[in-house]
Amino acid sequence: MKYAATTRRFFWAASSSPSAARATQTPGWLRGVSTTTATSDYFHPAPEADVPTEGEWAGCRRDFMAPIHIPVRGSEVLTNPLYNKGTAFKSGERDRLRFRGLLPSRVLNIHKQKERFLIALRDLDSNIRKNIMLEDLHDRNETLYHRVLVDHIEEMAPLIYTPTVGQACQEFATRFRRPRGMYFTEEDRGQMASMVYNWPHKDVHVIVVTDGSRILGLGDLGANGMGIPIGKLSLYCAAGGIAPHRVLPVVLDVGTDNQELLDDPFYLGVQKRRLRGPEYFAMVDEFMQAVRYRWPNVLVQFEDFDSSVAQTILDKYRDKHLCFNDDIQGTGATALAGLLGALRAKGQDVESLGDEKILIAGAGSAGIGIAQVLKQAMIEQGCSEEKAANAFFIADQDGLLGKARIDKLNREQKEFARDADDGLSLLDVVEKYEPSILIGVTAVGGLFTEDLIRTMASKVERPIIFPLSNPTTKAECTAGQAFEWTDGRCVFASGSPFDPVEMGEQTYYTSQCNNMYVFPGVGLGASLCGAKRVTDRMLYIAAKALAECVPEDVMAKGQVFPHISQIRLVSHRIAVAVIEEAMREGIATKISAEDAEDLNTYVASKMYYPEYVPLVEKGTYAS
Known about the structure:
alpha/beta
């Protein structure tokens, strides 16, 4: 897409979104801000001296902004969520784009629009209704939607992502309003390479794909799982700075084994039993080839695939495609960052991770993925592979993984099978081995009993307790239970958010150990540098960067993750770290020597910020 001027200084130069970043070498929201210091203002626009206070330009900047050239005009502009500004269209644009008279005369800028929206949203009495209202805005005006997320991420993240997204998925079919993303079925075999051209945007950077087989802790939701890619990509845009026209949510609809959905007359997916075996993997393979054919540099994030296929799919493509599995690698990197922070909170050396004993409840893709990332981190810190492997105690529904049932374990589980004590219960493991870290990824609410946690607390001065299952109802224990049963001595983080806990005159603060801290930055960095693949060391570096984002005053409260309001700064730091590592490994294909001189500014300049920019209809100007 052409602009009035095109140089390397015009970032987002291929944008087709009206909310592309400003076309200047250093954006206004970075001017005067050090790119080497942590500040909450880093990714928010600085106030401009010449902002009018009256008229239709009130509250709006009046400096240069590169226009977006759009292929539509008239009412079509108002019905396209990427271009629509609603009542923020000024009189000049209403004339130029030929829809004068189709909107009320009063012009409300984005600040007033956001204020009005928030009043209505906060008046609703349930999170699912708020989710619906947010998605309605998403379908009308993507710029305003993402601005609401960016400016109020702490309030909005639980509404568009965990825990509310679980209910949104369960009710996806009954609440379906407008298509978003793409669906591929077995009937599409042989046509996927042409199907991808039905997607209207030619510059897709990130795809989040699920087959709906293991949605959060809710199990097989089939095509209803589309809510997960949509929610994840909203966070990619708001937290990771990927422009909304450069993301694509996808469902591989291979059927469902959920009998309720098979019997549901309103279910929108394929009402057949799940495709399995060679036919299933052939369908995944055709999809991967198709998206890479149209978008050779696209990052594919696998999301909520069942443990029976997740690792197999990752292993097949991780060295050939730019991809990663968020449940395996993202969860592992986030947990690693949390544990490094927990060691800091306890006053221990973060390089001593290999000296800890780690009990993981859950031996599926998430549990094994966490163990793999933690083990790799221990080796990076200087542990032998044998010592690192011996630090883990992983249990499934049948108890501790041991070599007595080695034939029943998959390849990844075998790596962590103990020589003895196969089938030992969680409580017996705590009694015998005295682990200092307890992680839950079972989706079994209440699994961490009072007896279990009190026993652990009797053997460890400050136990680290991470119940990571989502949504909140599936958490292995609550924050209140963990603090009460350890007499306030634990370091706690959970997958879903919990409020601070009051005990007597003491307030105990919680942390959310959520993948949203990691995947937006990893995706941003890998995409910007044109990484050939996502390596294990890139994930280790991402976890370290995240851990280093936690300020000392936050750490002093026992919190091990930065405040969620800092998520764009976190994503920026992770992206820079990922690019640096990709360059060290020789797999970055897009970073010039000039860009590499100041990666902080380069990455910041590429991060999408939702604001309205001028629109120009294609073909109405001299080329």
